Task: inverse folding
């Protein structure tokens, strides 16, 4: 399935004419601006990419789920997936930059006061401010209840002290959603945490140096250090004690589908690159692609990709249509990563020793796919969620909880005629 500026027919049930237009825009952007920068980004893993986020900001893409009244596109979750997926086929790192800010944007849309939304959302939609969400800590990864960053009330200000790690876009963001402990030991985690909006210029806020990582070169996921950072009480996001809800709802409704879309982009690139290689590698007077054993493996890859594609779009289509679908978002993230990781291994093997040459592009996809396992819940946490769904003891459905809120993005209009 070669890259095309028209979506595959399998997506017709989920895409409107507006989605198709966005698809074409994202393809054009990736071809004109991203493709020529990929090798430079790959060659400089210690360097942050700043120009491409600026160009995406100028297109209003960080406002894809922001309501129109705040200057956003109000285009919804399918549209968000289209952007991340299509950019991700060309560069997962650039797709990661886009998705990392769209998670805290979702948190602000759902949990922010009118004043907070009026102050910040137009800036994000207009591209002058990017956001990060800072939950993970050195000793508290998937275990949100183990967060040690503390926020204490001093008069009418909160004073926050702690350290966050692996924070996506930490070096680009001007506003951070920081989750901290606000209750004494013994209070249940579901009531002990609070989310805060912390501006970049606050005294005591620091960042670790951008460090090279295995993949996603150009994307920063680094340290945020809070040394007695003082912020006004008006910067509490949601209610005091609702920090876990803010973090989990943003992770389920935005983080998981965003990472699903990144995996999908990498998966598509893997299939395309492998099909091209096999079709051009001579063997016995023909090409490797003509051999049944090879076709069997390539067919597996294509089948996995198709499954991941329809699973990803089907889940966000339901989200746009206000259907309770948390378990489908979780399942799409889990299988989207797993299937792409299996295809990455097949692709490496099908390229033989060529896969190991320093200049083989496939290595980028193989490294990048490792980065979609842990964010927005590792595989273990997705499976725990799904097991609870099977047992009928599943957690609250955030998709259902927010379905009737005014902050929700526009529902998907009628699908385009086939
Ligand atoms: C590309 C990328 C972007 C990221 N962006 C952000 C971001 O923007 N903001 C942010 O806050 N964080 C971010 N993260 C961090 C990410 O959320 C964490 O990696 C994730 O929560 C897991 O935490 P951990 O890596 O510390 O692993 P740990 O929690 O230490 O887990 C290690 C292993 O043990 C397993 N495990 C742990 N506890 C259990 C359990 N109870 N039962 C079964 N298995 C368990 C895990 O599944 C995992 O396999 C990002 C990470 C990456 C790679």
Result:
């Amino acid at each position: 399935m070669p890259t095309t500026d028209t979506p595959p027919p399998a997506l017709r049930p989920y895409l409107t004419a507006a989605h198709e237009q966005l698809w074409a825009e994202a393809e054009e952007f990736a071809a004109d601006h991203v493709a020529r920068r990929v090798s430079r980004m790959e060659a400089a893993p210690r360097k942050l990419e700043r120009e491409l986020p600026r160009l995406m900001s100028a297109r209003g893409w960080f406002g894809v789920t922001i309501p129109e009244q705040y200057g956003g596109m109000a285009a919804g979750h399918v549209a968000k997936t289209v952007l991340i997926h299509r950019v991700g086929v060309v560069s997962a790192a650039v797709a990661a930059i886009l998705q990392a800010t769209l998670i805290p944007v979702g948190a602000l849309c759902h949990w922010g006061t009118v004043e907070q939304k009026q102050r910040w959302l137009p800036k994000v939609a207009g591209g002058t401010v990017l956001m990060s969400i800072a939950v993970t800590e050195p000793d508290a990864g998937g275990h949100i209840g183990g967060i040690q960053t503390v926020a204490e009330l001093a008069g009418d200000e909160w004073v926050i002290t702690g350290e966050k790690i692996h924070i996506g876009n930490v070096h680009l963001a001007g506003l951070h959603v920081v989750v901290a402990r606000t209750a004494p030991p013994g209070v249940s985690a579901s009531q002990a945490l609070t989310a805060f909006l912390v501006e970049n210029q606050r005294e005591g806020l620091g960042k670790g140096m951008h460090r090279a990582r295995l993949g996603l070169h150009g994307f920063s996921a680094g340290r945020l250090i809070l040394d007695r950072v003082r912020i006004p009480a008006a910067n509490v996001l949601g209610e005091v004690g609702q920090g876990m809800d803010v973090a989990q709802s943003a992770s389920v409704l935005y983080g998981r589908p965003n990472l699903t879309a990144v995996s999908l982009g990498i998966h598509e690139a893997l299939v395309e690159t492998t099909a091209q290689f096999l079709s051009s590698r001579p063997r016995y007077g023909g090409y490797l692609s003509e051999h049944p054993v090879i076709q069997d493996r390539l067919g597996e890859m294509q089948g996995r990709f198709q499954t991941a594609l329809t699973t990803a779009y089907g889940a966000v289509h339901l989200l746009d249509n206000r259907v309770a679908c948390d378990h489908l978002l979780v399942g799409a993230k889990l299988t989207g990563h797993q299937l792409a990781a299996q295809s990455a291994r097949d692709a490496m093997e099908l390229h033989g020793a060529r896969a190991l040459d320093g200049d083989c592009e496939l290595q980028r996809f193989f490294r990048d796919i490792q980065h979609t396992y842990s964010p927005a819940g590792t595989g273990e946490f997705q499976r725990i969620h799904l097991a609870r769904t099977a047992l009928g003891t599943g957690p609250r459905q955030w998709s259902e909880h927010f379905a009737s809120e005014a902050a929700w993005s526009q529902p998907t209009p009628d699908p385009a005629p086939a």
About this structure: The chain has three domains: 9-130, 132-241, 245-401. The two ends are 19 Å apart (CA to CA). Residues 406-418 have pLDDT under 50 and may be disordered. Residues 100, 132-136, 141-143, 166-168, 216, 221, 371, 374-375, 378, 380 surround flavin-adenine dinucleotide (CB under 6 Å).
